[in-house]
Amino acid sequence: GENVEQHPSTLSVQEGDSAVIKCTYSDSASNYFPWYKQELGKRPQLIIDIRSNVGEKKDQRIAVTLNKTAKHFSLHITETQPEDSAVYFCAASIGGGGNKLTFGTGTQLKVEL
Amino acid sequence: DGGITQSPKYLFRKEGQNVTLSCEQNLNHDAMYWYRQDPGQGLRLIYYSQIVNDFQKGDIAEGYSVSREKKESFPLTVTSAQKNPTAFYLCASSPHSRDTQYFGPGTRLTVL
Are B73 and B23 in contact (CB under 8 A)? Predict the structure, then answer.
């Protein structure tokens, strides 16, 4: 089955700096890659996703890049703010309605003032 | 997200007891999922259902059971066979034609 590895497990940045979180996946058939943000004790919230027919996608300060050949994808957050502090999870699936996601182990991002 | 509800928010169970966690959605989503989250770890899939009256085991189904008698409901039973049930349980749903999964607020289960 699919295996998703995520690095780093913790990341501390100064406010205004950029943060990058990287994930690799094992199943070349995977074609859907969402990123979730989870605040302490809360539900995961989808922040951005990308499909394998696209190499990059941006939404304001957040961007995701995908390298299908290398089987890795990354989350980029620019101009970080204290409210970006949370745990971020990447995931991968073969796609199509109702298919299961395999999650990475998460990155605890701390944005320091 | 507001269309997916889970109850109760906190649940305490004695060893040897079965307990059922509720998950309801009013989004008309076809697929529903149950995940388990342990401290400092990612989400692991327990069971999922793509359509009413059908469900499949996920990666850690042992000690759990589900039913999908109605489109809007996907209850999870944690049985006494689950040796380490203390965890945060998250339910999710997605439309049939899309990949995006939306999560409920979760139930925190503690075994006393």
Answer: yes
Q: How far apart are CA A74 and CA B79, in angstroms?
A: 38
How far away is chain A from the Cα of B23, in angstroms, using its nearest Cα? 14
Q: Considering only the beta carbons, identify the residue of B43, B96, B103 that sits closest to A97.
A: B96
pLDDT, tens digit (0-9, with 9 covering 90-100), for B18-55: 999 999 999 999 999 999 999 878 899 999 999 999 99
Q: What's the confidence (pLDDT) of residue A97?
A: 59
Distance from CA of B5 to the nearest CA of A (A): 11
Predicted confidence (pLDDT) at residue A25 exceeds the cutoff of 60: yes
Compute the mean pLDDT over every residue in chain B, rounded to the nearest whole number.
Answer: 92
Asked if residue B1 has pLDDT above 60, the reply is no
Distance set, CA B75 to CA A53, A89, B29 (Å): 36, 25, 15
- A-B contacts at Cβ under 8 angstroms: 66
Q: Is A35 on the interface with B (CB under 8 A)?
A: no
* CB-CB neighbours of B48 under 10 Å: 27
- Rounded to an integer, what distance in angstroms lies between the CA atom of residue A66 and that of residue A71? 8
Residue from the list A1, A44, A96 with its beta carbon closest to the beta carbon of B103: A44
Test B58 with A44 for CB contact under 8 angstroms.
no
